[in-house]
Amino acid sequence: MKFGVIPPYGMAAVEDPVFAGDFCRAAEQAGMESVWVVEHTVMCPDYTSRYPYDRSGRSPFNENVPQPDPLLWLAWAAAHTETLRLATGVMILPQRNPLILAKELATLDRLSGGRLMAGFGVGWVREEAEALGCDFGTRGRRADECIEVMRELWGEQETASYHGSFYEFERVVSRPRPVQEGGVPLVIGGHSEAAARRAGRYGDGFFPLGVSMQRLAELREVLNDAARAAGRDPARVEITCVGVADPALLSAYAEAGVHRTVVACLVPELDAASSAMQAALSAAREAGLPLNGGLA
């Protein structure tokens, strides 16, 4: 079981350079495999869109919670660590230009020595999408094309070409390419069957958010079917779930084929944060799980 950590958004100044660097070093020293950061480019205080991961329909990430740009924050994290993997969990893919994003991800992967994982979702806030000039209704299809565009740009061919409904170009070159063979691993986030199908068709990983164990099993079957239909091995799609320091939960995750558990840090002080991260690893040991093993 691999373990990742989400910084304490809304509890500590995650945008502060000293805190950000110290937090990532503490995560690395505690034995965490990865750090996961979130994204909202803008917050809309008067949104009517329903947040899908809380019964209230409201997100804990309100307009008063600073959310630094995830890739710039991870670049800072890379400079302050040596082995900690760097992940977005998740970036809102259809709100970004895939040619620019492919260059940003490849650059960060190079600078970090191949430590980057790119987690993507399609977004749930219509108001945010509209503020950014994105069509909310086509976000799923746009996300699919974004993935195809980036994979094309990172391919081994001399030049890249793509002709889709949203993006089109002929014989372009994007350098540098990522360090990691095949490009930056792409982790598809979401709780829907559409997200599971996208992970099966395109993903190196799947990050099903806020689902029960039964729903996890159902989504895994959807993923498996989609992967096989696309001629891919579903066993190569790494499963990441949000969890807590509970040996019973971690054992259940392991039995369900989960490869990574991401825990949210809920304390602002670095000493307490380190203790909380170590508690998660201790719970895994109590459950008899090998740490940071599984798929590369």
Summarize this structure as a short list of keywords or feature phrases:
single chain, 296 residues, alpha/beta, TIM Barrel, 8-stranded parallel barrel, two-stranded antiparallel sheet, 10 strands, globular
SSE order and pairing:
Layout lengths: L1 E5 L10 H14 L3 E4 L32 H10 L5 E8 L5 H14 L4 E6 L4 H6 L7 H15 L6 E4 L4 E5 L13 E4 L3 H10 L2 E3 L5 H17 L8 E5 L4 H9 L4 E5 L5 H17 L10
Parallel strand pairs: 1-2, 1-10, 2-3, 3-4, 4-7, 7-8, 8-9, 9-10
Antiparallel strand pairs: 5-6
Detailed description of the structure:
It is a single chain. By secondary structure, this protein is an alpha/beta fold. It has one domain (about 35-260): Luciferase-like domain (TIM Barrel). Helix content is about 40%, strand content about 15%. It has helices at about 15-30, 70-80, 100-110, 125-130, 140-155, 195-200, 215-230, 245-255, 270-285; strands at about 1-5, 35, 85-90, 115-120, 160-165, 170, 185-190, 205, 240, 260-265. It has an 8-stranded parallel β-barrel with strand order 1-2-3-4-7-8-9-10, surrounded by 5 helices. Helix 2 links the parallel strand 2 (about 35) and strand 3. The N and C termini lie close together (about 10 Å). The mean pLDDT is about 95.
